Structures are given as structure tokens and as C-alpha cells.
């Protein structure tokens, strides 16, 4: 099995593990581990696609990664606001 295939499989495992842990209520969607597993999944998926390109999969992986980073930023901002007791923006 080629390296890019193994890396792609690691990415899929990361996505599926994150999803499974949230569904089994072992992990909160706001947790850094959830975001990290999704980031690893997206990055590994993109690496895999750099060897066997597929436009639809590239768009899906890229957007998954972007949405994860946006969600991670929003979650950190909410936690900071809660710690400092700042009301959420309307």
C-alpha cells in the first residue's frame, strides 16, 4: 500500500472516530480533541488527494477543514467570553 493511501486512511479514521465519539457522548463537539481529529482528517485527506486527485473530494476535504477551523475559532471565542462574562454578540 502506498504512503498517500495510508495517510488518507488515517484521515478517514480521524473523521469517523470524532463522529463516533460525539454520537456515543464520549466527546463534546466543542472539545479541542474533536476539532483536532477533524483537522487531521482534512489534512490527511488533502495529502492523499495530492497523489490521486479528485475535484469533488478536494472541495469536500477543503471545506471540511475550513469549517472545522472556523468552528474551533468560534468555540474558543465563546469560552473566552464565558470566562470573562461577556454576553454573546447579537
Automatic annotation (TrEMBL):
Ranges annotated as spanning the membrane: 6-24, 31-49, 55-75
Alphabetically ordered keywords of this record: Membrane, Transmembrane, Transmembrane helix
One Pfam family it belongs to: CBU_0592
Residues of the CBU-0592-like domain: 5-78
This protein's record includes keyword Transmembrane: yes
Protein name: Cyclic nucleotide-binding protein
Natural source organism: Acerihabitans arboris
Amino acid at each position: 500500500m502506498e504512503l498517500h493511501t495510508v495517510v488518507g486512511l488515517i484521515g478517514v479514521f480521524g473523521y469517523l472516530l470524532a463522529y463516533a465519539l460525539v454520537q456515543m457522548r464520549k466527546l463534546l463537539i466543542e472539545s479541542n480533541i474533536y476539532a483536532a481529529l477533524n483537522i487531521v482528517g482534512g489534512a490527511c485527506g488533502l495529502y492523499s488527494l495530492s497523489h490521486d486527485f479528485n475535484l469533488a473530494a478536494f472541495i469536500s476535504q477543503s471545506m471540511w477543514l475550513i469549517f472545522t477551523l472556523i468552528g474551533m475559532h468560534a468555540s474558543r471565542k465563546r469560552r473566552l467570553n464565558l470566562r470573562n462574562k461577556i454576553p454573546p454578540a447579537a
